[in-house]
Design goal:
Blueprint: E1 3-8, H1 26-39, E2 45-50, H2 56-66, E3 71-74, H3 89-96, H4 106-112, H5 115-124, E4 132-135, E5 151-155, E6 169-170, H6 173-189, E7 196-200, E8 206-214, E9 217-226, H7 236-240, H8 246-249, E10 251-253, H9 259-275, E11 280-289, E12 292-300, H10 309-314, H11 326-348
Helix pairs in contact: 1-11
C-alpha cells in the first residue's frame, strides 16, 4: 500500500537569521530540490511538501480531520517561522492535533536546545565534557574562568553554528569580553536569548556520531572532520557561505583514533540518545583531548541535507561534494522513514489512518 507523507520544511519566504545573508539562498533551494529528487526514488510513497508557516496550524487541523496523511516527515529544523528557539513548537503542534510524525518530541528538543544543560546531564553519567561557564545575558562582569585559556565562545542556545566565526576562540580575558559582546548583539538583533557559553577550546580531532534507530536497534556511524583551513571547527561560514574558504576545504574522513576510543564514543552516544529521549535520528559531537573524547553538544532532529554530517556518516566512502549520489542519499532518508514507521507501529498498534506495510 502506498504511504502518503507530508514533509514539513522551514518557511522559504521568511528571513532566517542562521543562513547566509539571513535568507534562503540558491544553495538552500538546491538542498530542497535534491531532497525531493531523492524521495521521489522511493517506491510505495507519495510526498507532499509544506513550508508556509503562516497557515501551518490550519494545515494541521485539516490533516487531523481528513486523515489525509499516514504521518508527517518533520524536517523543519529551522524552527517555527525560522526561529531556532521554536523548533520544539513544530512537534507540539503535531501532537496537539494528534498527528504522527518523525523525529524527536518537544521535550527532547527543548532540553537539547540548552547546550549547558546537555553537558550537565552527560557529566552526571560520567561522560567527559569540556569545562565551561555559562554567562547570562544580564551578566555585566565576566567571572574568572574555571579553566585556562584558550576558550571557545558560542551561544548557549541555538544551532547551525550561528554566531560562530574565526573570533570564537579567545586567548585572554580581553578577547573573551569582546567576543561575548559581539555575540550578545547578534543574538539580541534576532531576538534570541543572549546567554553565552564559554568552554575549554579543545584542540584534538572532532568526531561526530550519527545515529538512526530507536530502542535497542541503533545504527551508529562515526566520522571525523578533516579541516582543510586554519579554522579547526565548523564556523557559520563553513555551513552557510558558499563564498568562504571553509565551504569547500572541510571534509569528513574515517576516524583515525583507536578502536578503544571509538567504542567509548559509541557507548556514550548510545546512552545519550536514550537519556535525552531522542527518536529516529540524531548526532553527537565530540572533541578529543589527551586521548579521551569530550562531548560538545547533542543534535536531535539534526541536519538532513545531502551534504550534512548525518548523510556523510552513512555514506562515508561514497560521499563527495563533487560526486553526489542521489541513490545513496535516498537510502539514508528511507532508513529514517522505516525507523520512524517501526516506532509508530509499535507505539500506536496501527491506529486509524496509519497504513504502513512491512
Amino acid at each position: 500500500m502506498v504511504k502518503k507523507i507530508c514533509v514539513l520544511l522551514g518557511d522559504t519566504k521568511l528571513p532566517d537569521p542562521v543562513k547566509y545573508n539571513e535568507k534562503f539562498n540558491p544553495e538552500d533551494f538546491e538542498v530542497i530540490e535534491r531532497l525531493k529528487d531523492a524521495l521521489s526514488l522511493l517506491e510505495n510513497y507519495e510526498f507532499d511538501y509544506f513550508s508556509n508557516h503562516e497557515i501551518l496550524e490550519e494545515k494541521l487541523k485539516e490533516a487531523s480531520k481528513t486523515k489525509k496523511y499516514d504521518y508527517f516527515f518533520n524536517l523543519c529544523d529551522e524552527g517555527f517561522q525560522n526561529h531556532l528557539e521554536m523548533e520544539a513548537y513544530i512537534p507540539m503542534l503535531l501532537e496537539r492535533h494528534k498527528l504522527l510524525y518523525t523525529g524527536s518530541a518537544t521535550r527532547c528538543l527543548e532540553i537539547c536546545y540548552d547546550k549547558h544543560a546537555v553537558k550537565a546531564i552527560a557529566k552526571s553519567a560520567e561522560i567527559p565534557v569540556s569545562k565551561d561557564i555559562l554567562i547570562g545575558e544580564e551578566d555585566e562582569k565576566i567571572r574568572d574562568l574555571p579553566f585556562n585559556f584558550p576558550a571557545f565562545i558560542k551561544p548557549n542556545y541555538g544551532d547551525g553554528s550561528f554566531a560562530i566565526d574565526k573570533n570564537s576562540p579567545v586567548y585572554n580575558l580581553e578577547q573573551l569580553k569582546k567576543q561575548v559582546e559581539v555575540i550578545r548583539e547578534r543574538l539580541k538583533k534576532v531576538r534570541m536569548k543572549a546567554d553565552i557559553l564559554a568552554e575549554e577550546y579543545l584542540l584534538g580531532e572532532e568526531i561526530t556520531t550519527a545515529i538512526i534507530g530507536n530502542n535497542n536497534e541503533l545504527d551508529i556511524r562515526l566520522l571525523q572532520e578533516n579541516f582543510g583551513c586554519d579554522i579547526k571547527f565548523n564556523s557559520s561560514d563553513a555551513k552557510w557561505n558558499p563564498n568562504s574558504n571553509e565551504w569547500t576545504l572541510t571534509h569528513s574522513i574515517t576516524p583515525t583514533t583507536s578502536e578503544e576510543i571509538k567504542e567509548k564514543i559509541v557507548k556514550y552516544s548510545r546512552y545519550l540518545f536514550r537519556r535525552l529521549e531522542c527518536r529516529d535520528y540524531a548526532r553527537f559531537d565530540f572533541r578529543m583531548d589527551k586521548n579521551a573524547p569530550y562531548l560538545l553538544e547533542a543534535n536531535p532532529n539534526c541536519g538532513w541535507c545531502w551534504d550534512g554530517h548525518l548523510v556523510r556518516a552513512f555514506l562515508l566512502g561514497e560521499y563527495s561534494l563533487n560526486s553526489f549520489s542521489l541513490k545513496g542519499y535516498s537510502s539514508v532518508l528511507e532508513k529514517i522513514l522505516k525507523t520512524a514507521e517501526k516506532r509508530l507501529l509499535t507505539k500506536n498498534k496501527k491506529p486509524k489512518g496509519l497504513n504502513i506495510t512491512k
